[in-house]
Amino acid sequence: MDATFWALIGLVIFLAILVYLKVPAMMGRSLDERAANIAKELDEARTLREEAQALLAEYHRKRKEAEKEASEIVASAQREAAALLTEAKEKSEDYIVRRNKLAEQKIAQAEADAVNQVRASAVEIAVAAAGSLIADKMDAKTAGEMFKSSLEQVKNNLN
What we know:
Helix content is 96%, strand content 0%.
């Protein structure tokens, strides 16, 4: 009997013991459990990946909404600024027109006052000149007659 024969018999006995102790079934069960765990981890990873993609899409959507809202706010602010600028221009133009009218009225009033002062001065000078001429040329008799005629004229005007 050869050593190879004994090695073969030892191998067959070893394999028989392994089969008797159900080692291949345990190895299969262990491999199946490991494969199930790997499949479960893959499913969890796939679920997490899908959730991350959904969250990323939601953040992109929110960012776009925020950008849109920001652009609307900027556009609204620009419209308000333009409206305020237009209103300020209109108010300043109205103010300038009112100030010009007021200045023109003051100038016209000053001109009227100056003309009235000149007229009053001319009347005073004319009255003074007439008074001095009358005083020089008039005697007591003529003055009395003028006084009487003036008095009668005033009486007639009052009645």
